[in-house]
Specification:
This protein is an alpha+beta fold. The chain contains 4 helices and 9 strands; from the N terminus they run H-E-H-H-E-E-E-H-E-E-E-E-E.
């Protein structure tokens, strides 16, 4: 049986929370991202939180989507930020992150999300349809390299007439 066949992607459940925290700590080498995930969840901002489960119950990956806002505001647009996304170090480079992103994006389409942003590796996220934010006249509220802040429009043309600065939830700090 291949890893992809044995791997399940599902929404997080309450018994998963401590394991998700530990996964983020191990994947990022500290507790900052784990604290952000916990704070977003406790603040009601986790729109979509998925886990990758191997075998019977081993959580090997996690992805979170939370609301973002555009300044100046565009009330009719619904945007989400992808991240953090984490895979246990011993399970990396096996396609788990790919599965999490692909399944997460399918859920975002089902949730009628207009666009998703990510602040991430510019060589990784374009394979999922993400483009540099400058393609959409959007900037990050963070001091991030422009090529690392990317956008994927889920409703074609939804960002065509808009520009501005994208702000993540306050739990991310600084932006």
């Amino acid at each position: 049986m291949t890893l992809n066949a044995a791997l399940r992607i599902r929404p997080e459940r309450p018994p998963d929370l401590s394991r998700i925290r530990e996964l983020n700590r191990l994947a990022f080498g500290g507790i900052e991202e784990a604290d952000i995930v916990d704070a977003i969840r406790s603040g009601g901002g986790a729109v979509l939180s998925l886990v990758a489960v191997a075998g019977d119950d081993l959580i090997v990956g996690h992805i979170l989507f939370s609301p973002v806002t555009l300044v100046p505001p565009v009330p009719e647009l619904r945007g989400l930020g992808l991240g953090p996304m984490a895979v246990l170090p011993s399970w990396q480079n096996r396609g788990i992150g790919t599965r999490l992103v692909e399944e997460g994006m399918r859920h975002c389409v089902d949730l009628a999300v207009d666009y998703v942003v990510v602040l991430g590796h510019p060589a990784y996220y374009p394979r999922f349809g993400f483009l540099p934010s400058v393609s959409f006249n959007l900037k990050s509220a963070y001091d991030a390299p422009p090529e690392a802040f990317m956008v994927r429009e889920l409703r074609e043309g939804s960002l065509r007439e808009h520009s501005g600065v994208v702000h993540y939830r306050p739990e991310f700090g600084g932006g």
